[in-house]
């Protein structure tokens, strides 16, 4: 069998390539590979989260919040301490887009 014939494996390999670019501070290329991995297999939470962090590093806070909204389509995001997850990114934590997204998550959790 070929690892490329299994979507989950292909997306993970692309994710690892993206992570390598991310570690080299090449965020634009990393983002391209995160998007490619998600197009193949959109149900891997780590890829979504890595994409959000990449966008935060690029100071693309609105796009990061939009990516968090996409995560909601695949995962229950109400049971995560998002402030803790993003504590390394204080600029994002105090941004209006993050606050609005978090309010939405908390409102949905209350339903």
Keywords:
111 residues, mainly alpha, 7 helices, 73% helix
Structure description:
Helix content is 73%, strand content 0%. It has 7 helices and no strands. The protein is an all-alpha fold and 111 residues long.
Task: Round the mean pLDDT to the nearest integer and report it.
Answer: 92
Class computed from helices, strands and strand pairing: mainly alpha
DSSP strand count: 0
Shape summary = globular
Number of helices: 7
Q: How much beta, percentage-wise?
A: under 5%
Radius of gyration: 15 Å
- Uncertain stretches: none
* Largest sheet features: none
Helicity, as a percent range: over 70%
- The SSE string, one letter per element, is HHHHHHH
| Termini Cα gap | 46 Å
Question: What's the structural blueprint in terms of helices and strands?
Answer:
Blueprint: H1 7-23, H2 27-40, H3 45-57, H4 61-74, H5 82-85, H6 90-93, H7 96-110
Helix pairs in contact: 1-2, 2-3, 3-4
Short description:
The chain is mainly α. It is built from 7 helices and no strands.
